[in-house]
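A protein record pairs a chain with a discrete description of its three-dimensional fold. The shape at a given residue is found from the number at the same position. Here is what such a record looks like in full:
>
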Amino acid sequence: MKKAKLLFPIIIVAFLAAWAVSPVAAASVEKTLKLYSSNQVYKAFDKEQVEAFSNATGIEVKVKTASSGSSVHALMSGYCDIASTARAMYRRHQDYGFLQVPFCRDPIAVIINNQCGVDNLTEQQLQEIFSGGVSNWNQVGGPDLEITVIVPSTDTAANKNFRRQVMKDKDIEHDFMAHDSTMAIAAVAHFPCGAVSFISRGAASHEKAVKVVRINGKSPTDKDYPYFQTFYYVTRAEPSDAVKKFLDFTFSDGAKKIIRKNGMVPFER
């Protein structure tokens, strides 16, 4: 079994401490919007979306990033107005008065260091790599180079979605774990040759030092590519006017252009 290591030190800090520990003030909601964004969604879409929205409306958006689960929890605890997530919320949360709005489909991309020399993997090869059965790229048509498996934290939507869809709930054996899902991109890009991981296609599109691998001959840009995540915004059942404006902007032509540019597929409202 591979010995797991933490890729980056985890500094345990109460993530809500970055803002005043008090529920959102209703008086400021029209001029300021508080968003807790999934790390994947932020890198793939929210960063550009927020800038475009603020420029168009004059509404300031204060953003904090976290895992999908932590972002939704922040909303439910009253510390933000809206949250983005890369996985569906639990059904019981709808009963508690929260709504989720799916706005795009994002392919789950398998990324490798540019030096790995592999362009395509079968699903079986992928499962063997991430379960520890294949440990050298020469076993799957690449150079004689040891494979280094890097995965996002088990708490992230990226990990949960990959394990369910690609691994079919089989255990993952990894060499290093990134606390933040998008840290996996930087790790693959800058780690010594041989690194492989998985992440949002939209997030990976911003890093030129990594290569996205085809799976069973299918590229994440193909319509029948089999692995994907759905990105959602989660709001209270009765969102404020500023939140409504933000959601309206998400389905505008400008926002859809950002989504398509980053290799994702926008949804109609």
Remarks:
- Residues 106-215 form a domain with the D-Maltodextrin-Binding Protein; domain 2 fold (CATH 3.40.190.10).
- The mean pLDDT is 88.
